[in-house]
Design brief:
The complex is a heterodimer of chains A (496) and B (129). Chain A has 496 residues and is an all-alpha fold. Chain A is built from 19 helices and two strands. Chain A has a two-stranded antiparallel sheet. Chain B contains five helices and no strands. In chain B, helix 2 packs antiparallel against helix 3. The chains are: A mainly alpha (496), B mainly alpha (129). At the A-B interface, helix 6 and helix 7 of A face helix 2, helix 3, helix 4 and helix 5 of B.
């Protein structure tokens, strides 16, 4: 069937073409309806793609029927099908939620432009994930980043700090992307190809080349900035804290995950584990940084009063977990990274959606302002608690599954201290989640605050879909672990 | 040693521009100057790509039928895309600077940080009531 043959390109082309259409739509509801339908369309595409590749195969789509290496190739296998599902799935769930939230937070005459930027961001993230061409990754990365800077800056209506956050993000994000493209240029210089699969074939004989090693360094540094690996995380806390609620939900759940995917792809597919110089980089650079991120991120999160910023710092810690699995480079570690990529999107999606509801009702999201609020917004805070339990890694939530594999990976290596540190970071998460629970459930509401109702149903239902997914994939991790197993097999089993 | 520099002077230039651009971006306190630094930084990468594509004695890649050596046109095409990305980034960055100037009344990073800190304190005081 024609549709099935072209799913790979439609996935990216439809949101890209919908974006300019969205500018021209009048009013507030039409742009939203268009974005909603496009999001659901991309979700259907990624479900189709994932079901085709979950057995371990891969789909190659040649753009304009030009075969690689002349043409650009889209290549889908288990790992990027999973990331595509995360990006489009979160977008599809967040959009029904968006209508009320965006109406509250964005100027009425700017909705068309806001959703246009959102669609471009979606296009970019899907494009980075699906493409099999190194330079194409850069182009899509910049499409998503530029629209992200705009989206973050739209938070300026509520808090002017969104502007300085967007500016910092722009400077650091551009430096990161430029590092990445410099690395790609060096790879092109020695191999004469930009196709990732071709690169993977041509690089191993060049393992001793200084140029290839420099390229690896530039790619890791560039992606490290984009995914906010400690100490390159400076842009993240304020960007998440002052962006509009919908943007925070979408970015926290997807943007850094896509960068983690790109790094996984380069470390394990393009360079591969034959490279002798990669192992020490992972063990002596990425691993210590990941551990510091895990601990420092959690410690700083404890001291935050602004809840959005608290969970942003917690994101930095959680990215530490993902990078730790990547750096451990054994089967359990990589399984943990792939699972956490998916699971963390569910947790942070739910948490930031709940905070968006608090923002809608009381106009602030700080520990002091949510005192006693759980009695008035019971459903919202119940979902917050579920997400928080996931961050801690309580059994029965998604967080437990990925941390279990991570601790297993550390023990397999015989690094008991590392396993203890992972557990310690989880205990730190208990502290900041408890601070939130204590404020919302145990403290009395301030006298001068008006009573509020719970979130409207159109925001509550998406939130609970995500919150229940947090429990579902924590109890029955069969689907996610089988996909992760396929991915790990492809990464460690001599390439796909 | 001297030959290593003169034979590859374009690469040395790229390294210098990269470092200079990054240095200005990271150390300058003025938001517009940071954007300028970012531009220099990106331009260095453009120069690098073009250098990679150039073949000594190679002509423009136009098929004339005679056997000739061509420069590789692909890096040039890639860089056209990267230039567009760079222009978009500069435009967006400057637009943000304009908004920041309107809202904060300054484009010095130190003043901005001070203003953000004051905002933080004021928010804390209001909620502590």
């Amino acid at each position: 069937m024609a549709f099935l043959d072209h799913v790979a390109i439609l996935q990216v082309a439809v949101p890209l073409l919908a974006a300019p259409l969205c500018v021209m739509l009048p009013g507030r509801h039409l742009p939203w309806a268009l974005t909603l339908s496009v999001s659901w369309f991309t979700l259907i595409c990624s479900v189709v793609l994932l079901s085709e590749v979950s057995a371990g195969g891969s789909i190659a789509y040649h753009l304009g029927n030009w075969p690689p290496p002349i043409g650009i190739e889209y290549r889908v296998d288990a790992i990027n099908a999973l990331v595509l599902l995360v990006v489009s799935g979160i977008s599809a769930i967040a959009l029904p939620y968006a209508r009320t939230s965006v109406e509250h937070e964005i100027e009425p005459d700017k909705h068309g432009l806001f959703y246009t930027a959102y669609l471009l961001c979606l296009t970019g993230l899907l494009g980075v994930t699906i493409t099999g061409d190194a330079f194409n990754i850069f182009v899509f990365l910049e499409i998503s980043s530029l629209s992200t800077y705009v989206l973050v800056a739209t938070g300026a209506r509520l808090d002017r700090r969104a502007l300085s956050a967007a500016y910092t993000y722009l400077v650091l994000g551009t430096v990161g992307a430029t590092f990445f493209v410099l690395g790609v240029g060096l790879l092109y210089m020695v191999t004469g190809t930009l196709n990732l699969a071709d690169l993977a074939e041509r690089l191993p004989p060049l393992a001793e080349s200084r140029v290839v090693q420099a390229a690896f360094a530039f790619v890791v540094a560039g992606m490290g900035l984009k995914l906010a690996l400690f100490p390159l995380h400076a842009w993240l806390p304020n960007a998440y804290a002052y962006a509009p609620s919908l943007v925070t939900v979408f970015l926290a759940a997807t943007a850094t995950k896509v960068s983690v995917y790109v790094l996984l792809r380069f470390v394990y597919t393009v360079f591969g584990h034959e490279f002798a110089f990669i192992e020490p980089v992972l063990a002596w650079l990425v691993l210590p940084l990941a551990v510091i991120a895990m601990l420092a991120g959690s410690v700083v999160a404890i001291h935050q009063d602004n809840l959005k910023r608290m969970f942003a710092w917690s994101s930095i810690a959680q990215i530490g977990y993902m990078m730790l699995g990547l750096a451990l480079a054994n089967a359990s570690g990589l399984t943990a990274t792939v699972l956490h990529l998916f699971n963390h999107a569910l947790m942070k999606g739910a948490l930031f959606m709940a905070l968006g509801g608090v923002m809608l009702r009381i106009g602030a999201v700080s520990l002091t302002s949510v005192r006693g609020l759980a009695r008035e917004m019971p459903w919202t805070f119940a979902a917050l608690v579920i997400g928080g339990l996931g961050l801690i890694g309580v059994p029965g939530t998604v967080g437990f599954v990925s941390k279990w594999y991570l601790i297993l990976a550390a023990i397999e290596k015989g690094w008991w201290l590392l396993a203890l540190l992972i557990a310690a970071a989880s205990l730190l998460a208990v502290i900041y989640v408890w601070k939130l629970v204590e404020a919302a459930y145990l403290q009395p509401a301030p006298q001068d605050r008006e009573r509020v109702r719970d979130m409207p149903p159109d925001m509550l239902i998406p939130l609970w879909v995500l919150a229940l997914a947090n429990i579902w994939f924590g109890v029955d991790a069969g689907l996610t672990t089988s996909v992760a197993g396929t991915v790990v097999h492809a990464f460690l089993g001599g390439g796909s | 040693m001297l030959e290593a520099i003169t034979d590859h002077y374009n690469y040395w230039l790229v390294i210098f521009l990269l470092m200079a651009g990054l240095f200005v971006t990271m150390t300058s306190g003025n938001l517009v100057k940071k954007i300028v630094g970012l531009n220099v930084f990106q331009t260095a990468v453009f120069l690098f790509y073009i250098s990679v594509g150039k073949l000594e004695g190679g002509t423009a890649p136009i098929l004339t039928g005679e056997p000739e050596q061509f420069s590789n046109p692909l890096p040039h095409v890639l860089i056209l895309t990267a230039i567009v990305v760079g222009v978009a980034t500069t435009a967006l960055g400057l637009a943000l600077v304009v908004r920041i100037r309107e809202t904060y009344g300054s484009i010095e990073e130190a003043r901005l940080q001070e203003a953000d800190r004051q905002d933080e304190l004021r928010a804390a005081a209001e909620q502590g009531r």
